[in-house]
Structure formats: structure tokens, C-alpha cells
Amino acid sequence: MCGIVGAIARENVVPVLLEGLLRLEYRGYDSAGIVVTNGGLHRLRTTERVAELAKLVSNDKTEGFAGIAHTRWATHGVPCERNAHPHFSGNEKKIAVVHNGIIENHETIRQDLQEAGFEFLSDTDTEVIGHLVSKHLATTHDLLDAVFLAVAELRGAYAIAVMDEEQPGRIIVARNGAPLLLGLGENGNYAASDASALLQVTRKMVYLEEGDVAELYHDRYRIRTCDATTKLNSEVTRPVRESDLTREAVELGPYAHFMQKEIFEQPVAVANTLEMVLNAQSISPRLFGSKAEEIFQKTSGILILACGTSYHAGLVAKYWLESISGLPCSVEIASEYRYREPIANPSTLVVGISQSGETADTLAALNYAKLLGHDHSLAICNVPESALIRQADLRFLTRAGPEIGVASTKAFTTQLAVLILLTSVFAKLRNKFPSELEQEMLIGLRHLPVSIQLALQIEPQIKEWARNFSQKRHALFLGRGIHYPIAMEGALKLKEISYIHAEAYAAGELKHGPLALVDKEMPVIAIAPNDVLLEKLKSNLQEVRARGGELYVIADADSNIKESEGVHIIRLAGYSGMFSPMLHTIPLQLLAYHVALQKGTDVDKPRNLAKAVTVE
Ligand code: HGA
């Protein structure tokens, strides 16, 4: 989603702004822009990549001591230069604004402002913000006060940065429902949508909270916040945190793409996530927070809320939680849940899963569940200072490290690792987990990183398969039981980065409709672990073969599925029991990656998609 960078310093900030935008490119965008103060507000915008913006800046010799920059992922108004941020408000004084989020009441505000004489030059919802600030500036004469009054009129989600031509020594930023943090440097102060944009200048970060409005000067800053009930604002201090992100973690190193890097980081990412149990003698509820045991004791069911890949992780967990710990579990797409009228049970624990912890629908769904009467929530998330982590009562941080490729890979496997732990904790508390089973689980968890490493070794065979896929327009993914959500995740990966239309089906559903699609042009990928459903799955595969469908089967070493004409088989190491979904997902990630390479698509920044989905 959109990326914001702001900088005000004793030196020219243009290089910092451009480098920051490059670091935020992974979030996905369709246009980019920058404004700096240099005897007035000087703006450049483009619908090309940040590298093109950098060329414009260099040809133009743009420099300045303060500036704001933006990558836009259009929600309101097509991607074009006129709609790219920063937007100006020209009445009275010139105001520049960049925005991440959606202003829901922009139409009414636009109408009022037009009646008051403000002229609109873009189709965006964002443009109302600049005009509102201009309007209030005419009476308050203070930029901070004007921003406060402006944001009070907004409904929806925003992170914004604002500059005023007449007050070039300050930048005002504000957040509500979209991420924004400050960076405190030696030579200046900065703001950005995420920490990776600012590591170039500082590690000292201040994470803004909902309703915060901050004012940045080159040598100081202050934060004021609006009390939700009294609507009065007062100065607050927020903790300064030292970011432990390393530059290597956000750089490509020897890899061609972030997705490739992240696929191959999975053994380490899972080992880091499980660090606290790898040397332990038992699996404790305290892994989920100091209040976890007390809350888990009262938990009678689980409701998982998530989107996209995280939703698939939730679907896998449902099989684990119900079969191993005997706890009823439902899994809902967050954007659906938040707009229906579900029946809440206070003792059902709500589990929100999101890589970024800023997924707008997941955050809203968690809030909604609370309003409906669910007593407690747990966040499973990869970003320590995210809104999800702060919002939930209990938390478990996946320690995957920054995930930059839009197609999620290591976030998924680390989420599954946490969900296995959650299942084990509940199994123990509910007396379903005698100590031999717990010890077996611990041994399995210790082997997991190595098992993932072994699964990655099938890459050369996957490359062969990928050659056959690149000319295809459709693909079917089949799985049964706990591997059905893995088939869904495989189809999602292929769609996301290779733009091949892919659908996943529970294999038993094949003859209820999708079999009609099967012919020699339709490759069918089957997830075929050596579990109790294998024989049933083999019958479903016969049905495909009988209709001329080409089969690509991911089996286990010890399975008795045989290669034959039209049946291609890749074998993982032996059947790995409950860990099997985590291993069977690896070939599917590699397949999507290599098909995308064959097709020459932009693997890390697939068209139309964005990383942290901070708008609904
Ligand atoms: N609504 C604004 C900003 C979009 C956004 O935040 N995307 O992530 C626009 O469409 O310009």
C-alpha cells in the first residue's frame, strides 16, 4: 500500500526521501511523488517507478531541507500524475499533503469545500485533506492546530504528512488507522510508514498511536493526541524504541528477488519463531503472554479472523485445533465477518492473524468481535509495533524478519509454526496431550527447520515443472483434509505472481462441478501426502487422468503413487504427520516463483497488488 516518507534536517533531505521511497517500494504502488521546500514548495510526480522519480529530481536539481514523498496505490481515482501525491491546496497559503488510507466522507467534505470556493484538481479522496487544512489555517494561523481541526472532520483511515509553504521549518504528521512512525536522527527528524525506510538515517523510532498528531522540526518534535471522548487534545510522550531491524534483513543480498530470499529463509525464520521452545522441556501457555494461561483456561472455542494467506493459515489451524486439542474452531475472512451479524460467545478466543499487523479488515474485525462481546483476543503477527499487536490482549510474534515480497511465504510457515504451538498448549490444558505426545511434538518442532530445508531441495524438479506451466492459462489445485487449505494457498501464490488463473478444490468436490473444466490444457496439481486420505485422493486423480488432465503430484517418499504418462511426481521426504502441511506448501511456493520467472512478471511487485493492505 501507499508509502510515506517525511524528512526535515540540517542538510538536503532529497536523498533520504528517495532512498526511503525505494525501501517502501515493496508495499506496491502505481505512482510516486515528492515535494520539498526551497523558496516555496517544489513538487515532482510520476506514474513510473521511484527510479524514474529520482531521474526527474536529478535533472531538476531539486534540493531542500524539508520534504515529504509518497508512493501511491490508487484507491480513489485512476493512477495518473494528476492523482499522484503530494496534493496541493492553493487557496490562501499553499499546503502539500500525502496520505495513506481512505477518507470515507470525502464526498460530503468535497461538496462543502467546493461550495466554499475550493477548486479540486484530482479525483482522490486525499485532496479534501489539504483543502481542509487550508480552510482551518485561515482562522488558526497555526499548521498544527489546522491539521488537528482538519482530521477531526475526517471519517475513515489515514496516515498523513503535511507541509505549509509559509512555515517551511516544520512538518506535521498524523495517524488514525494506518501506520506511521517517527525516526529521530542526528541531523534531523523523519517520518515513514515503516521503519525500513528510515534505517538509512536512524534506528531510534517513535511509533505513533491512533489519534496522534506530531510536529517535526529539524532539532525537536512533539506529539499531541486527541482524546476520543472529550475531543480535547494534549501533549503526550511516546516511548523511543531502538529498531533491531538490520539493513541486510531488508536488502536482497545474493538473491534475485525478495520472494526467492524469503522462501529460502524459511528454515531460519521457523527456527527463530520457535526459539523459545526448541530447548524447552515443555510447551507453556506463557509463550502467548503472562495472562495466557488464565484466559486459555476459560476458552471454550476459537474464532480465527484473517485475510489472504493468513486466512489459509487459519484454515489449517482449524484441523489441528479440533482434531488434536478438541476445541471447536471457526475461521472467517475478516472483511466478511466485520459486516455480518455473527453470534458472539464471550469465552470464544478471537485470534487475529496478519503478517503486517496493519491489515485494515483484520483490525476492524477484531474490534467488531470485541464489540459483539468476545472477551479476549490473541494476535499472531510479524511486526512488533503494529496496531494488531497493540490491540490484542495476548500476542505471539512470528520472527520471520521483514517480509518484502508481496506474495507471502515465510510469514505463512511461521504463522503455522505458532498455530501448532497454540494447538499444543490447548491440547495440554484440556488433557489431550499426555507427556509422551508433548515430547514427540517437541522433537518434531526441533526437526522442523531441517525438514523445511530438505523440502527446499526439490527446487530443480520444480523448475522443470514450471516450464510446462508458463504457457497455460488455468490450473487446478487439489487437496484433501488439512491439505485442502494448502492447495488454496498454492493457487493463490500462482495467481498472485504469474497471473495464471488458478482455483483450489477439495479433491472430493471435483465431480460436483470442476471436473467439467479438465482437459489436456488444464494442469492439475495435487497435494498427496501419505495420510489416511491418500487412497481417496488417488481415486480423484484417476478421474482427472481419465479426462486427459495432466497431473502434477506432490507426494511423500514412501507413498505408492506411480509416475506414468501424464502423471508427474515430486516426492518430499517421508510423511511428516501434523507438520506435513508446512512442508507441502514449499513446492507450491517454488512453483509459483519459477512459473513467474518463466513468464517474466514482476515477482516482488505483482501488478495491482500491495503488501500491507492498510485499506479495506
Ligand atoms: N486514497 C488515497 C490513498 C490510497 C492508499 O492509501 N493506498 O494504500 C488515493 O487513492 O490516492
From TrEMBL:
One Pfam family cited in the UniProt record for this chain: SIS
BP-aspect Gene Ontology terms: amino sugar biosynthetic process; carbohydrate metabolic process; fructose 6-phosphate metabolic process; protein N-linked glycosylation; UDP-N-acetylglucosamine metabolic process
Keyword tags: Aminotransferase, Cytoplasm, Glutamine amidotransferase, Repeat, Transferase
One example GO MF annotation: glutamine-fructose-6-phosphate transaminase (isomerizing) activity
Catalytic activity: D-fructose 6-phosphate + L-glutamine = D-glucosamine 6-phosphate + L-glutamate
Top-rank taxon: Bacteria
Active-site residues, as the UniProt record annotates them: 2 (nucleophile), 611 (for fru-6p isomerization activity)
Subcellular location, record wording: Cytoplasm
Domain (SIS) ranges: 292-432, 465-606
Cited CDD domains: GFAT (cd00714), SIS_GlmS_GlmD_1 (cd05008), SIS_GlmS_GlmD_2 (cd05009)
EC number assigned by the record: 2.6.1.16
GO CC annotation terms, alphabetical: cytosol
Record-annotated Glutamine amidotransferase type-2 domain positions: 2-219
Assembly description: Homodimer.
Function noted in UniProt: Catalyzes the first step in hexosamine metabolism, converting fructose-6P into glucosamine-6P using glutamine as a nitrogen source.
Full protein name: Glutamine--fructose-6-phosphate aminotransferase [isomerizing]
High-level lineage: Bacteria, Pseudomonadati, Pseudomonadota, Betaproteobacteria, Nitrosomonadales
Gene giving rise to this polypeptide: glmS
